[in-house]
Each structure stands twice: as C-alpha cells, then as structure tokens.
Amino acid sequence: MSLRETVIAKFQECFGEVPVHVVRAPGRVNLLGEHVDYNDGFVLPIAIDRATWLAFSTSDTDQTRLTAVDLSEDVSFTPEMLPAKTDAKGRPLPTWALYPAGVMWALMEAGLATPALRGVYSSNVPQGSGLSSSASVEMAFVLAWQTLGGWRLPPMDRALLGQKAENEYVGVNCGIMDQFASACGEQDRLLHLDCRSLEWQALPLPKEVAIVIADTRMRRTLTSGEYNKRRADCEEAVRLLSTDLPGITSLRDVDLETYNRLSSHLPERVEKRARHVVEEIERTQRAIPLLEEGDMVEFGKLLNQCHASLRDLYEVSIPELDTMAAIAQSLPGCYGARLTGAGFGGCTVNLVAREQTDSFSQALAAGYEDETGFPPEIYVCSASKGAELI
Ligand code: GLA
Q1: Which of 27, 126, 148, 378 is deepest in the core (most CB within 10 A)?
Q2: Is 157 one of the catalytic residues?
Q3: What would the pLDDT profile of 7-45 be if each residue is shown by its tens digit?
Q4: Whose CA is nearest to atom 1 of ligand 1?
C-alpha cells in the first residue's frame, strides 16, 4: 500500500468517512552548504522522493484531531491551549505533536486562518536521519491550513512560517534550508539558495551522476542542545570579530582571507566552528561553476572536504558516519561522500557515477556491515517536487 492509500484508509477508519484532501511534503538531502544556512550562507539541497503524506478534512468542533500512523498515537488540541503546549485535556503535548501544533501557532501569530481539522499522517522520511522529517511534517500542515483557511502564500513564505514554528514553538534554532527545500523542491533539479537574500534558483542535476543516500540507522536523539550550541558559537565568533570588522552581521560577511588574518583572536572552539562556516561558504561558491561545467570530480572533492570539516572543525559527526563516508570515498565511481543534515547520526549523501550505482551500493553496504556489524539502508534518490496538494 502506498503512503497515500495508507493515510486515506486510516482516515476512514478513524473518522468513518473519506478525507476531503491529501497533501504530500518531501524531505530533503543537502549536497553542500552544511550548517551555513543560519550564517546567511548558500545551500544546495534537493527535495527527495520520500515524504510526509497527510489526509485531512475540516472538523465540526474547535478541536484539531490528529493521528500519527507511524507512532500509532493520537492527539487533540485547540487554539486556546497552544501557548501552554498542552492537548485539549491539559496534558503536555507529546513531542511529535509540537510540530503541527507549532505550525498552527505560527500561522495564528501571522494572522492567518487555521480552521480546526481532522488529520491522519504518515511519513517515509526516517526521523532523526538528517533528511528533514520535521520540516516535511511542518510543510504538510502549513499547506493543509492554507487549503482550509482560504489564504494563499508563496512557497518561500510558507517555509518561513514552518521555520518560525520550529524556532519559537519546538525550540530548535534551525535555519531555513529544510523548510525551503520541502516547500520549493523541483523535479530532477538541485536548488541553490542564498540564505541571506532568500533568492534561489533551480539548477539541472548532472545526468551522469546518481545521488545515493546511505543511512547508518544511527538515530539522532534530542540534539537540539548541541545544534543550538553550534549556532551560539557562530554568533559569538561574529561578536568577537566585529571588534576588527565593525558592521558585520554574520559569518557570511567574512571572507577566508580576512578570517585567516583575524582568527587567532578567537578562542579555540569558536575558531574551529567559525572556520568551518567560512570555508564551507567558500566551497559552495566554488561549487556553482563546477556544476555548470559538469565537473563532478572537483565538485565531489568539495563534498569530501565538507565531511572532514564537519568531523574535525564543527564536530557534528559520529564514528558510524565517518566509517560510511570513508568507505564510500574509497570505492570506484564515487565522486564524493559526506554526512548530510545536522549530523550526530543519520545519513551520508554520495555522488556516484550513474552506471556504477549498483556495484557502489552493494560494496558500501557490505563494507559498512563488515566494519560495524550493522546493515545500513542504501537507496538512490531522485529530486522531487516540493509540497503539494494532491
Ligand atoms: C538542520 C537544520 C537546518 C540546517 C542543517 C545543517 O537540518 O534544520 O536549518 O542548519 O541542520 O546544515
């Protein structure tokens, strides 16, 4: 059964009728530009062919009633209870429900209508895997309330509202990349976003390469603390560097040459974090002409450098991700491999010569299992459309 069929069937079981609408909102994989979105940098994600599916109809009470099929859990909440983050009976909302509740809260804050709904959802974006399962849930609910609320916003504005929900309601200080990719994804295209101006373009994906996702199946749990700390270190770097560089507002304003000249003024940890960001922003700028020329060899090297930097400077890798990336980088046909997303678990993204995809995937799975004792999950993904009403 497809996820679409699953959520429709479950809706019928829960509410005794067919749902009026179904939306689909994808996860994403980021090729380059990691931990730079909240530093006003550039990112290169694609929306993937894994998504959250939500079947929904209006509700005739003021209660929004949701079923998360994958967790076999239900929740009900009302607009009045949102600030306290409790369900309709006054109990704390379960963590998973903070995402839809946060979306309703953010939309209400923006003065947008959010009629109570009955919804059932399910996702094949694995949670805590670096593929933005949360953003896909957020984008599905923003679209659901847009459908029922009688308003219409461009995809980027919907992404910003999802980010607001995650920052201010869920409490993760994330940047805009994930919601952007889920909202604005394009089929067979790579997205290039300037996180400062929010200008973006879709670039053709080089035909001769496949994007392979390798899931260590190590799940990141409650690492918003570590994520928020990285962000705070970047802000501290800006504060300290602004003594010499008055007027800078983010690490985007510091080029590598200037950074090299001033970096000795920073405490060691802050220096490492900021160096990753400054160098990674530079790498994403070097990537665009390489992509345009189709130079996968040089582009792939940037992915490898990014992994090393996330491991050694930003310190968001784990041994399993290092093992997965190292094995991949040694295999024939692999242009580049690195951890993708926030880190601390999850997946690597691999750029592989299309005709060698099968042998690469088999060798990577075998090599990883040999070293760790665990079979990974490996799949070739394609770039999909952003969130849509089906
Ligand atoms: C998470 C966040 C994004 C981004 C990445 C790291 O996915 O949600 O905003 O910061 O980590 O690049």
Answers
A1: 27
A2: no
A3: 999 999 999 999 999 999 999 999 999 999 999 999 999
A4: 342
